[in-house]
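stage 2 :: seqdesign
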C-alpha cells in the first residue's frame, strides 16, 4: 500500500480488568455481527488444503481452475503477538471464510522496531515468530490461504531502510539512498538469510515447515519495489532474478511473485499510453521485464488511481483504472502467459469529493473485470481489497481501510463476487457450506 501506517504500541494500562472486559465486548461484537458463523459446525480437523499450482495463465487447485476473491490484512502477525488480540485474528479469518474469500495477503516481516520479527540480521524474536505460526495455523483451520510478503520497499515495519541501517552499523560504506538494499552484497546476504529462516521455519502449532505448508498460497518478494536511483531498471531486475532463484532453490512447492505495482518503464512501449503519469516510467521497475522471469509464477498489480492523479475527478479516475486493469490482463494473456493478480486496490476516503457510494462503484468495477476474466478463462486471476479490519483497530487503519460488514452494499458486492466465481469454476471444499446456500438463493 502506498502509505501503510506504522504499527503503534497499544496501551497496556488498566491491569487485568480492562483486557477481560475488552475481550468480552469483542466476542459479543463478533457474535452479533456474524450470527450463524458461530453456529456453523466447521470441522476443522478434516480441512484438507492442496498446493495451488499454475498452468499457463491460470491457477489450479486439485485440477480445477482457481480464481481468487481475496483481501489484505497486513496486520495479522503484528497483532497476534499479544495473546489478548488473537480473537481478532480468528474473527477476520472467519469473516473472510463466511464471505467466501479464499486468500488473504499479509506481512511476514517486521524488521527492527516494535514487535520486530527480525531484531537484527540473523536475530529473531521467537515470540513474534510464534505469532506468525498462529496466523498460519488459524488460517488453515478456516480454509483460508495466505500470500506472505517478505520485505517492504516502504518504511513501515522496517523495510529496506532498516536493512541499510544494519549494514551501516557494521561499517559498510553505502550511498545515501536506501536503494543500497538492492545492490550491496552484505545486505543481499542479510536478506537471503532472512528468507531461508522464514521458509524453513517449523510451525510450533502444526509441526509443518512453512515451505511444506499448502496454507501458504504464495510468497511475495517485496511490497511495491522501486529503485529510483537506477531508472534503467537493471539494478532491480538483477535483484529480482537473484532473490527469486534463491527462493526457488529452497521452496519449489509454492508460487512466487515480485510484489509490483504494475508500472511500465522507459523501455516499454506502454510507458506513455498505459502509465498514470510520466513519473511512473522512472521508478526503476518494469511490469513486463520484472514479471517475465521463469522463477516468477505470476504478476502483481496495484490499483490506486486517486493516489496517482491529483487533478482528475472520480469519473476520470474510474475510467483510468478500467484501462489499467485491461492493459495488464492483456499483458498476461499475450506477453507473459501468466496469471495477473490485482493484489491491492482501494479508494481513499480523504478525496475532496469522496462519497461512500464511490467505493462501491470502484470495487464493483474491479470485481467485474476479474469475473469476466474468469468467465473467459483469461489471465486476470484475482483481486485483493486493501484493507479489511475488525472493530477496535483504529491504530492499524488508513484512509482505505474498511470493516466490510458495516456497509451492507459493500458486503453484498464481496459475497456476490465469491458466488459468481464459484458458479464459473465451482466451490472449493474449504469454502463454508452456507456459501452454497447463499449463492443458490442469489440471482446475479
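stage 2 :: out
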Amino acid at each position: 500500500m502506498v502509505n501503510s501506517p506504522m504499527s503503534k504500541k497499544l496501551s497496556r494500562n488498566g491491569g487485568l480488568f480492562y483486557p477481560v472486559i475488552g475481550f468480552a465486548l469483542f466476542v459479543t461484537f463478533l457474535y452479533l455481527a456474524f450470527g450463524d458463523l458461530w453456529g456453523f459446525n466447521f470441522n476443522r480437523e478434516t480441512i484438507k488444503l492442496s498446493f495451488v499450482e499454475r498452468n499457463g495463465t491460470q491457477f489450479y487447485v486439485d485440477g480445477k481452475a482457481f480464481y481468487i476473491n481475496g483481501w489484505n490484512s497486513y496486520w495479522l502477525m503484528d497483532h497476534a503477538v499479544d495473546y489478548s488480540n488473537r480473537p481478532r485474528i480468528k474473527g477476520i479469518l472467519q469473516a473472510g471464510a463466511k464471505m467466501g474469500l479464499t486468500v488473504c495477503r499479509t506481512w511476514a516481516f517486521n524488521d527492527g522496531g516494535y514487535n520486530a520479527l527480525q531484531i537484527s540480521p540473523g536475530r529473531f524474536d521467537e515470540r513474534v515468530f510464534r505469532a506468525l505460526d498462529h496466523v498460519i495455523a488459524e488460517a488453515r483451520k478456516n480454509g483460508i490461504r495466505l500470500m506472505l510478503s517478505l520485505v517492504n520497499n516502504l518504511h513501515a515495519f522496517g523495510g529496506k531502510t532498516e536493512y541499510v541501517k544494519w549494514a551501516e552499523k557494521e561499517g559498510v560504506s553505502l550511498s545515501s539512498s536506501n536503494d543500497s538494499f538492492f545492490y550491496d552484497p552484505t545486505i543481499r546476504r542479510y536478506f537471503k538469510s532472512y528468507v531461508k529462516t522464514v521458509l524453513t521455519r517449523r510451525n510450533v502449532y502444526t509441526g509443518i515447515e512453512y515451505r511444506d505448508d499448502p496454507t501458504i498460497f504464495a510468497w511475495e518478494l517485496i511490497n511495491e519495489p522501486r529503485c529510483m536511483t537506477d531508472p534503467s531498471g537493471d539494478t532491480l531486475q538483477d535483484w529480482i532474478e537473484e532473490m527469486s532463484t534463491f527462493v526457488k532453490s529452497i521452496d519449489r512447492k509454492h508460487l512466487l511473485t515480485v510484489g509490483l505495482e504494475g508500472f511500465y518503464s522507459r523501455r516499454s512501449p506502454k510507458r506513455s499510453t498505459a502509465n498514470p503519469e510520466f513519473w511512473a516510467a522512472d521508478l526503476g521497475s518494469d511490469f513486463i521485464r520484472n514479471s517475465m522471469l521463469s522463477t516468477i509464477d505470476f504478476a502483481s498489480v496495484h490499483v490506486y488511481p486517486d493516489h496517482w492523479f491529483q487533478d482528475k475527478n472520480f469519473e476520470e479516475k474510474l475510467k483510468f483504472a478500467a484501462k489499467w486493469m485491461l492493459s495488464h490482463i492483456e499483458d498476461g494473456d499475450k506477453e507473459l502467459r501468466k496469471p495477473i493478480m490485482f493484489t491491492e486496490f482501494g479508494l481513499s476516503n480523504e478525496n475532496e469529493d469522496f462519497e461512500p457510494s464511490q467505493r462501491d462503484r470502484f470495487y464493483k468495477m474491479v470485481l467485474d473485470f476479474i469475473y469476466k476474466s474468469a468467465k473467459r478463462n483469461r489471465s486476470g486471476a484475482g483481486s485483493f481489497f486493501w484493507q479489511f479490519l475488525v472493530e477496535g483497530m483504529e491504530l492499524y487503519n488508513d484512509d482505505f481501510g474498511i470493516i466490510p460488514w458495516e456497509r451492507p452494499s459493500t458486503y453484498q458486492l464481496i459475497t456476490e463476487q465469491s458466488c459468481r466465481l464459484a458458479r464459473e469454476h465451482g466451490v472449493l471444499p474449504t469454502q463454508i457450506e452456507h456459501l452454497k446456500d447463499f449463492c443458490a438463493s442469489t440471482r446475479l
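stage 3 :: structure notes
- The radius of gyration is 21 Å.
- The longest strand covers residues 340-345.
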